[in-house]
Amino acid sequence: MNTGYNFIPRYGYVLTGGLSVDNQQVWAQIDTGSSALFFTWAEWYDGLTYPGASSLLPTGAYACPSCTVGPITDLKFEDGTEVHIFPHSGTLHSGSMSIDGITFGLVNFQDPPPMC
């Protein structure tokens, strides 16, 4: 797994691991204190900020124009940030490893809202 050290506004520097999900490059934050695997939903982020903004995120974003929001799970973090995620399944690749049908969350709400 490729790793990176990225700056997340309002959060600081984080260790990230590079993954490919359905042939889309994303960088998962390592050791969030959460057992949930989740990514920013590009369509939500671009709609909240401006078109194309998700392509500038240091963690990347998962594009899924045909996704519909399903059951919501609330995640609350120690710093007070809250995100809502809904489940989606895909194929995850990391190096030579491949996991078909892995379920992960897509973020469709954040409080406080993301900085753009």
TrEMBL record:
Fetch the InterPro entries from UniProt: Peptidase_aspartic_dom_sf
Domain of life where this protein originates: Eukaryota
Q: List the protein's name.
A: Peptidase A1 domain-containing protein
What organism does the UniProt record list as the source? Perkinsus olseni
